[in-house]
Amino acid sequence: MKKILMTLMAIMLSTSLFAGTKEEKQLASDMRGMLDAIVDMQKAAYYNDARVLKSATTRLIGGLDSLLDVKASSYLDPKQKYAEKFAEKRVKMIKMYAEDLLVSLEGGNIEDVISDYHQISRQCYSCHTRIRNNK
Predict the structure, then answer these.
(1) 64-105: per-residue pLDDT in tens?
(2) CATH assignment of 22-133?
(3) Are 97 and 119 within 8 A, CB to CB?
(4) Domain boundaries, the chain
């Protein structure tokens, strides 16, 4: 009985790994990368490590393009017509705040760096909350 149950669980897990398009898989991978970058940004800010903060922010900016490559309408409910434009606006705002964070970091203005980080986090949270709650 245990073998049958384990086999069923393995089959279900393996089929779920193949679900979704290549673009959606890439998007999920890029989202995980951007989350890692944001976590690294926060850690670097706490430890006052400008080098890591700059590197993590640059990685975050690099991952943003994939959010525009995969249209939200391809994986969301058709009733969410607003999602496409909403997500695109969040990407633009994240990029703007991330670029400003880099400028503030170069200028040594730590208060602005922290403010920009907070705004980046708010943009991510806003998009995830609206889109996932309406799925």
Answers:
(1) 988 887 777 677 777 776 778 888 899 999 999 999 999 999
(2) 1.20.120.10
(3) yes
(4) 22-133
